[in-house]
Amino acid sequence: MDISRTPIQGIDQYFELTEIKSARCTSGKVIFKCKFCSSRSEEEGYIIVSSTDSGDPKITLNKTGFKEDELIDSDLGIKLGDEIELNKSDDLWKVELEKCTMKASERGEITLESDGKVLSFNSDTTDTKQNLSSYSVGYGKREVNRNPEVVKTVGIGFEVDPDESFYGMGERFDEIDAKARTIEGWVTQAAGSASKAKYKSSPLLMSSRGYGCLVDSYDDMRFNLADTNPEAADIVLEGDYISVVFAFRKDTKQVLSSLTEYVGRPETPPLWSFGFWSSRNTYESWEQVQEISEKYRSMNIPCDVIHLDPGWMGDELDMDWGESFQNPEDELKKLKTKNFEVCAWEYPYLPKGTELFSDALARGFLVENKDGRPYIFEDGGKTGILDFSLEEASTWWKGKNKRIINSGIGAIKADFGEYLPKDSVLSDETLGSSSRNKYPKMYRESIAEAFNEIGKDAVLWSRSGWAKQLDGEIFWNGDSYSDWEGFETTIKSGLNSAMSGYLYWSSDSGGYESEPSDKLYEEWMKWSALGTTHIRAHGKTPREPWMFEEAKDRVKLALNERYKIMPYIYSYAVESSHSGIPLLRPLALEYPEDPASKNINTEHLVGENILIAPYTDPGRERKVYTPEGEWINYWTKKTYTDSHRISYDSENPIPYYVKAGTPIPKQENTEHLKHGFSEVFVEIYPGKRDSDVSVPLNIDEREEICVKNRSGDIHVEAPDRIEKLKIPKKLLTNVRSISINGEERDVEEIIQLS
Question: Whose CA is closest to 311, among 297, 298, 323?
Fold first, then answer.
């Protein structure tokens, strides 16, 4: 193999796999001893293959290898199995695992094969001038301070099909298909939605070919997806080894389910958290909060949560109630009698010159610089960074959270968490470069433990993230601009978050920066109300519905409709904590065989059976794509069959479609969810064709509603709690008879209920 190639930028030598010398199976893993060559020298290294407890291959490329009795550490807590077998025939090794077969030749050619799918590694990654355009399987070295070269980057490359698409890798603000792009795996302040930066990154990558990868690391990483080489992709870490789990499944949906199982799925947040959150930056006193809460109830606008941004603390941000927020226990009790929960803001940075900073400094609780002094950075002022790798610091912060939670707070907004400089040093001697992606998790675990240790379930409203989601954690997409572009990129960020395994997600409805127009606020609120798991209006100017005169009535209608269909929304949300498949679903996830789906970035499914297509440009008609099958307009009850592109004027209600045959669990109007659901009934949307549709019903236990349509004979199987059925009057022409759990129902009775 010709290795006289120009190194990749940023390294002095690139060593790629050129030969596999030997292989042995020991202690539940296969160790390949390999030769890696650069343009100047050759070295030995190791590829270690192990089986996860689900039977998928975990491939580790390491320069120094592992001892026979040494376990391969897992940053993300991935559990390993021991079902692995090594065989050799001629010059070809075969590693047999439950879900996959790995083949490796003495020439260094590696493939993974599963049910007819083949993924090839170590492809040619040079351009016509023999410059390296991407990593194959290898590592890069760099001279450091004139000392001998050390391994700085390590990567695994694989071949790409011409029609292949790639999904995941975090809350990107661009198109869901990331092919022909390079995606950085690095948690950072996105500063709005118009950049490539991401508040939430993810080491999860999925292909439209039915395989996915999970990089078992918190290190800074990069995904080059046929960007520098149209025939190759690579995953590269800043570090001295890389471990990647490869999962082959039937389709993208099953891949996502499998990969989220590895990192752990969060428990569902409480029902009240799915109600409307009212917020602004910032409410200034208890008097103002009580007045706003009264207005919600007097105007009969549904609302469950009032959020307090930094103003509750006072000027020093000292984790204590400010002058305008004294007597919190009494004030919070008043709000609870009106069925409101309250959320309070915090962040993990301590302003220099405050008592909080001085206390943490004296205790040695701050992240340090390389000289052993507190790392001070500018964030609108000089601040220190709390070091959550130190158990004592985490316990100290936990105590401050317990005090405010005991006051009656129901949720914490865990803001920020993205600022950990690469050259900072934590108490465990790790650098910021290897801990930054992990820092948000450490920060929020301290808060979650504060809830749990006083006997409460944690509810967190979080901005930054990596792979692991905590129980009761809800993410939002940060500081979006209050314009139509900001709205469109927010929708895309929701789809990309879903494809990265984030289950409970929201945005600042209306945008955070500046003041939205009435029309923008209306459309953003309608989409949030009917299309996402959680809904909060928040920004630098007031965001209460009555502040938008031209929009307030339609926003109220949308909120009312959300609360009516909450049994449907909540049931799918609960199901996602078991399956790893979110409520918010890109068409590419639910219809992977439809070639049009991968290019649809501003409409999506709500669960499996509702399609939503928000208006993102008020001056143009909205073209809506409906996938294969029958789709019924939720508002007009008009039916569309098979794939269509439908044009809508933005003066019409938000495009909202129900898959024909779907039973939607609903409840009557309510202004809050504090005491659970009112009587739940089922509204059925029968089509003209035969159909079999099931939806989850998760109220007190996991149940299911199934509806079969056979030539207009509707057969419903539902839990005993469901006593009332409804069918929209305009769809009764599609019904000949109806039964529930084998008992015939009078169609006239259904008409009266509709």
Answer: 323
Q: Which residue has the tokens 């040079």?
A: 126
In order, the DSSP letters of 120-150 are EBS---B-TTSBB-S-SEEEEEEEETTEEEE
Helix 518-531 and helix 484-498, axial crossing angle in degrees, nearest 10: 10
Q: Give percent above pLDDT 90 in the chain.
A: 82
pLDDT at 330 over 60: yes
Task: Tell me the three state secondary structure of residue 366.
Answer: strand
pLDDT digit string, tens, across residues 566-588:
999 999 999 999 999 999 999 99
Q: What pairing do the DSSP bridges indicate for beta strands 737-740 and 713-717?
A: parallel
- SS3 state at 575: helix
Q: What one-character DSSP code corresponds to residue 189? A: -
Q: Please give the CATH topology (third level) of the domain spanning 13-159+211-248.
A: Immunoglobulin-like (2.60.40)
- Rounded-to-5 percentages of helix, strand, coil across the chain: 20, 35, 45
- How many C-beta atoms surround the C-beta of residue 362 within 10 A? 9
Question: pLDDT at position 130, please?
Answer: 58
Whether the pLDDT of residue 477 is over 50: the answer is yes
- Residue burial 199-208, b: 16+ Cβ < 10 Å; e: rest: bbbbbbbbbb
| pLDDT > 60? residue 4 | no
Residue (of 529, 480, 472, 587) closest to 167 by Cα position? 587
Model-level pTM? 0.96
Which two tokens mark 157?
């490359």
* Residue 716 in tokens: 């419903």
Show Cβ contacts of residue 202 under 8 Å, excluding neighbours closer than 6 positions: 168, 169, 170, 185, 465, 466, 467, 500, 501, 502
DSSP 76: T
Identify the residue whose tokens are 């000292």.
Answer: 318
What is the side-by-side strand order in the sheet with 725-726? 662-667, 680-685, 725-726
Q: What are the strands, taking DSSP E only, across 519-583?
A: 535-537
pLDDT at 8: 55
Residue 679, pLDDT above cutoff 70: yes
Sheet with strand 630-633: strands edge to edge? 584-585, 604-606, 610-612, 656-659, 630-633, 639-641
The contacts of residue 522 (CB under 8 Å, 6+ apart) are 548, 550, 551, 554, 555
DSSP code for 39:
S
Q: And the tokens for 189?
A: 């302040």
* SS3 per residue for 611-623: EECCCCCCCCCEE
Quick one: average pLDDT of 331-338? 98
d(CA 364, CA 358) in angstroms, rounded, equals 10
> Quick one: which of 678, 614, 621 has its CA closest to 648?
621
Q: Where do the domains of the chain lie?
A: 13-159+211-248, 615-653+655-753
